[in-house]
Amino acid sequence: MWETLFKMDKIEDNALKDITVKGVPLLVSRIDGKIYVTDLYCTHEQTSLSEGFIEGCSVVCSAHFASFNLKDGKVISGPEGETGTIKDLKSYNTKIENGMIMADI
Ligand code: FES
């Protein structure tokens, strides 16, 4: 179901923002003008990825440095560089309508 998140101009380019919509904690990223939405919490030990940092089109968790592709939520590398130990993030379809970011939650 499509839900309205916030105005596009409320997030700068190459930035991360968290929001909870309908009880679902989400990570919204804006990378080179495009919006992506995934689950907010790292699948390792539930650290908020809004505290992480952006590397290209990925987010790196601030706790143990797992990284996830912001486009599709897939694990790029696990905690401390391990592989195959954590799950992907759920990724949500997005669209912009009248300057508002919407996600299919
Ligand atoms: S909580 Fe994110 S890598 Fe450990």
UniProtKB/TrEMBL annotation:
Q: Name one Pfam family in it.
A: Rieske
Per UniProt, the keywords (alphabetical) are: 2Fe-2S, Dioxygenase, Iron, Iron-sulfur, Metal-binding, Oxidoreductase
The Rieske domain extends over 2-103
Q: Which organism is the protein's source?
A: Ferroplasma acidiphilum
GO MF terms, alphabetically ordered: 2 iron, 2 sulfur cluster binding; dioxygenase activity; metal ion binding
Designated name of the protein? Biphenyl dioxygenase, Rieske iron-sulfur component related protein
For the keyword Ribonucleoprotein, the answer is: no
